[in-house]
Automatic annotation (TrEMBL):
This is Peptidase M41 domain-containing protein. It comes from Roseiconus nitratireducens. It comes from the Bacteria.
Length: 227
């Protein structure tokens, strides 16, 4: 199976799992081949357990936008961790003591384009305690993710991009979330392709079966890379 497709599946699964962990409602998960020549995904969610109205919405807006920012970061970070595991093996964790200045600048850089996406380096610690790095293309943080993240920063006074990033890294590193990200990525990759864009998709019901633990662990085996 295409390594880039598997990586994209982990990206979209990261969005879904962290949104759900932060009490948002999942809608669907889709992977498809873009005419830009690479895999894209969609993982829409509705922030919060319910839709607040009137004054309640105003009061809860900072909280909801914080969730939105973490959800936007989660896809990139889940993809980075998947690629880190491929390179360095199981047991890696994000290096929370690493300098995040370059990453913070990258997240807020509005000059990036499809043709010139830039790149970004992530720090990890291995199971043996070694500090290692991994560099990925800036495509791992899409225009949509960037807009969502930066909208939250603009609208919520005092929202700290460094704290948001570290807190989302910690969520990605949690064992329960790691298992669910792998499970969702595996499940969407097992879905049949349809159409010229090779669409694979999961419904909210299929996603919630995984997140509620109703899918057997044996079903989490990734499709063979030669499929």
């Amino acid at each position: 199976m295409d390594d880039e497709l598997v990586s994209a599946a982990h990206h979209e699964a990261g969005h879904i799992v962290i949104a759900h962990a932060l009490d948002s409602r999942v809608i669907s998960l889709k992977l498809f081949w873009s005419d830009l020549g690479r895999w894209f995904g969609e993982s829409p969610v509705r922030l919060g357990k319910e839709d607040p109205q009137g004054m309640e919405f105003i009061v809860r807006m900072p909280q909801l936008l914080t969730v939105s920012a973490k959800t936007a970061l989660a896809g990139m970070l889940a993809q980075a961790k998947y690629e880190g595991i491929r390179k360095y093996g199981e047991g890696i964790q994000f290096d929370l003591d690493a300098d995040l200045n370059a990453l913070s600048e990258f997240l807020r850089d509005n000059s990036r384009t499809e043709a010139n996406p830039g790149s970004i380096e992530f720090g990890f610690t291995t199971k043996s305690g070694d500090r290692v790095t991994l560099r990925l293309s800036g495509h791992c943080f899409s225009t949509a993710d960037s807009k969502s993240f930066n909208r939250s920063l603009r609208q919520v006074a005092g929202l700290d991009p460094f704290a948001l990033t570290r807190e989302t890294m910690q969520l990605i590193d949690l064992e329960a979330n790691r298992i669910n990200i792998k499970a969702l990525a595996t499940l969407v990759l097992k879905q049949p392709e349809s159409g010229d864009d090779k669409l694979r998709s999961l419904t909210a019901e299929q996603i919630l079966e995984v997140l509620s633990g109703k899918v057997e662990q044996a079903d989490f085996e990734m499709p063979n890379s030669n499929d």
